Amino acid sequence: MNKCKKSYFLSILLLMVFVACKQGNEKSVQPNIILICADDLGWSDIGCYGSEIKTPNLDRLANEGIRFTQFHNTAKCFPSRASLLTGVYAHDCGYNKIHTNSITNAVTIGEVLQEAGYLTYWSGKHHGKDNPYHLGFNHYYGLKDGCCNYFNPGKPRDNEEKPAQKHKRHWCIDSTEYHPFTPQEKDFYTTDYFTKYAIDYINEAKDKESPFFLYLAYTAPHDPLMAWPEDIKKYEGMYDVGYDKIRKDRFNRQLASGLVDSDLKLSEASYVPWQSLSEEEKIFESDKMEVYAAMIDRMDQNIGLLLSNLKRLSMMDNTIILFMSDNGASAELVNLKNDNDLATVGSLNRWISLGKSWANVCNTPYRFYKNYSFEGGINTPLIVWWPETVKANSFSQFQGHFIDIMPTILEISGAEYPKQHKGNEITPLRGMSLLSVLRGEEQQRNSPLFWQWNKGAAMSLEQWKIVKHGIDSDWELYNLENDPTEINNLASEFSEKVVQMDALYKKWISTYE
Question: What is the pTM of this model?
Answer without folding.
Answer: 0.94
